[in-house]
Specification:
Layout: H1 3-9, H2 21-40, H3 47-59, E1 62-63, H4 64-71, H5 75-87, E2 91-95, E3 103-107, H6 109-118, H7 121-129, H8 133-154
Antiparallel strand pairs: 1-3, 2-3
Helix pairs in contact: 2-7
Length: 162
């Protein structure tokens, strides 16, 4: 019997660190974010800020609530990111004229222009990872399924449990 099959049949082996999906996801996430770091530094962005900018480039204008949903982040986590991006001159937060309670987020010209430089990020990451593009696409699709399944298990939007 192959070793991986033996591990799956042995309840004791199920507690092995290397068998844990959460461990593999955690290490992979940390390492991939570390790969992004030197690529994003010339843009003046951290990885979380880059994710905000990706959402903004795709969906602008957007409310803070909508942006929070797009990024699967609580507004309290998103707010400091938006403040830093606003201080950097990349976006603006303004009260929505139609609903004073809502904050509208828009890009500045500088924020829009940064998109052109950011076009170099995905190919640079693929190059640094040195993995086949088809493999990365399949991995993203698998992770999207994991996200959906975990959101369903959490009974909601998948944001940090309260």
């Amino acid at each position: 019997m192959p070793p991986d099959t033996q591990t799956r049949l042995d309840p004791e082996a199920a507690l092995a660190l290397e068998e844990q999906v959460c461990f593999a996801l955690s290490v992979a996430a940390r390492n991939v974010v570390a790969v992004y770091k030197p690529i994003l530094e010339p843009l003046g962005l951290t990885h979380p800020q880059y994710l905000v900018m990706l959402a903004m480039w795709q969906h602008e204008p957007v409310s803070v609530r909508e942006l929070s949903a797009l990024l699967h982040l609580d507004p309290a986590t998103l707010s400091p990111l938006l403040k830093r991006l606003e201080a950097s001159g990349l976006l603006r937060r303004e009260r929505n004229a139609e609903d004073e309670r809502a904050l509208a987020v828009t890009l500045t010209e500088r924020g829009r222009a940064l998109r052109q430089e950011a076009l170099r990020v995905p190919p640079a990451v693929v190059s640094r990872l040195d993995l086949d593009l088809e493999h990365l696409i399949a991995l993203r699709e698998s992770l999207t399924q994991v996200i959906s399944a975990s959101q369903a298990a959490l009974g909601g939007d998948g944001r940090t449990a309260r």
